[in-house]
Amino acid sequence: MKAVLGWLGRTGLLYLLLCAAIAFYLFAWPAISARLSNEDFRQDAMSIAEVRTRLIADRDAAQARLADRVDTIRSASAETIADRLEAARAERAALAAELAEGEGWLDRIRPSRILERKRRELQLAALETEIAALEVARERRAREAALDRARNQLEGYARIPTAAAVEISQRLCSRARAALAQYDRQEPIERNLRTIFLREREPLVEREDTLCEQARDRKVRRDRGLAAASSVREARARLQAIEDFTLAALPDPTTDLSDTTVRDVMMRAALALLAILLMPFAIRTLFYYVLAPSAERRPPIRLIRDGTLPATIATGKRSGPSLQIELGDNEELLVRQGYLQSSQSGATMRTQWLLSWRNPLTSLASGMAFLTAARGRGAMFGISARADPFAEIARIDLAKGAALVLQPRALAAVVQPIAAPLKIESRWRLFSLHAWLTFQFRYLVFHGPASMIVKGGRGVRVEPARAGRVFGQDQLLGFSARLAYAIRRNETFQPYLFGKEPLFRDRVADTEPDAGGVLVIEEAPMAGKRGGVRAGLENAFDAVLKAFGI
User: Fold this and answer.
1) Which residue from 97, 190, 233, 514 has the highest number of Cβ atoms inside 10 Å of its Cβ?
2) Per-residue DSSP letters for 230-251?
3) Is residue 540 pLDDT above 70, yes or no?
4) Which residues contact 319 (CB under 8 A, 6 or more apart)?
5) C-alpha span between 270 and 68 (Å, rounded)
């Protein structure tokens, strides 16, 4: 059933991925591919200098085209100018709307987008200039038409009566009107008889009408002629007042360009990547040939300088998955939780809260707390790591007066005299370069008589120090307190350069020939360790504990 559900899950996930891929190809890819042309790729590879050169060339070409259009506008008709003005305003509105849409977050460094935006800005500036020229040309055409209308109107008044002629006509009209008025002031009977029989009034009326009509006509013609002449003068002045359109240079499209393009970003990223890739090798080379030799020359750490006896181990004994311990007179066994495999029936058993009440935090941090304490002469106990299949156990017997530097985390059990419990001392080395480079400032020294039952991944090896032993820092569990502890540069450079080996290894040596000092080394420190995030947290915590010798 589990296999069927797993197959259904994998098949369903594959089906959903295929649906997403097909939908992307059908709906999204056409729009994306339309913008990702080969020309865009070629332009995006341009430098900022090439972009500036291309924009200057585009501006010169646009300036030349604009000059040709302005020359055409000067000779175009009013209808042509009006049509082009309407079209140019529509183009300007469309371009302004496109430029107002904003930019993408990479458009300011992509040369293809920079060129496209700047070309639109040039086109908009050219349209603004053309629209201004069209408006000037339209106004000029309108004033020319007004002047033509004024001239045509003035042509109807080719001969404008003078003021004297108008005045004479008005006097003649006044005399004729006065003569008619004088005739009408006669006695009515005489006036009527003379009008009827002699017809004297009719010529006077006709004369008055003719002369007054002539006076009015001359006056109107003079006024209208003068007005038409004034209109011509005003239209000519307005036409002369309008200035011809002067073509200005288009703005420089390179003034506000960024100095960074995609090419620059990629080059800087490539240089940064190269620096990141080479920096560890440069630092490692510097450390190997400069720092490490200087650190090796520093004095080693010596925790005890007197004639303390070395730690000893019975010959022929090797670490194994389990260890049998037989208690003697006045001895007791302290066992870490999870390491007591079997016990003697009838033995006295109790709980001891801490390995050392003088070092409570060390006991708690190293796991040597809530110990099982057992006593009984001749009692047999089995010690084994029940939860760790890779751990092996070894016994180190410390004679009276002997001292062993040991990490408490490696302790599985302790056999000590009831009357003389195990003595533990703390030794700090804060001002030693070796302590800083190994990140261990505190060392715990265990004094005999006692037997230390230690554990380690895939086994624990106890070997004589003699003239000196070199090993990995994470392998060292302990060493005789009178030995000289220091660091040593790794013998081979290339493995360290490529991160296969650490820069320093630990070195422990006897201060005197044939002094009998021993080392306690873990065979495989990483055996049984977890992986992942939890392992990283545990390793960080272990590093902190190591600084305090735990």
Assistant:
1) 233
2) HHHHHHHHHHHHSPPPPPPPPP
3) no
4) 392, 393, 394, 456, 459, 460, 461
5) 47
Q: What is the dihedral of CA 333, 338, 341, 344, to 10 degrees?
A: 40
DSSP state of 5: H
Question: What is the residue whose two structure tokens read 């009692």?
Answer: 379
The CB density around residue 536, as the number of other CB atoms within 10 Å, is 11
Q: Among all chains, which residue has been given the structure tokens 């006076």?
A: 215
Residue in 446, 362, 343 with CA at minimum distance from that of residue 396: 446
- Interatomic CA distance for residues 94 and 232, integer angstroms: 42
Residue 180, both tokens: 């008619």
| 3-state SS class at 271 | helix
Complete domains list, the chain, with CATH: 40-260 (no CATH), 298-547 (3.60.160.10)
**Residue spans of beta strands (DSSP E) within 76-183:** none
Supply 61's token pair: 């070409």
Between CA 18 and CA 122 the distance in angstroms is 45
3-state SS assignment for residue 403: strand
> 114: closest CA among 51, 47, 32, 66?
51
| Model confidence, pTM | 0.55
In this predicted model, what pLDDT tens digit does every residue of 55-82 receive, in sequence order?
888 888 888 888 888 888 888 888 888 8
Q: Do 425 and 447 form a contact (C-beta atoms < 8 A)?
A: yes
Q: What is the CA radius of gyration of the chain?
A: 57
Mean of pLDDT values over 115-131: 87
Number of alpha carbons in the 13 Å side-chain half-sphere of residue 186? 14
| Token pair for 31 | 């729009």
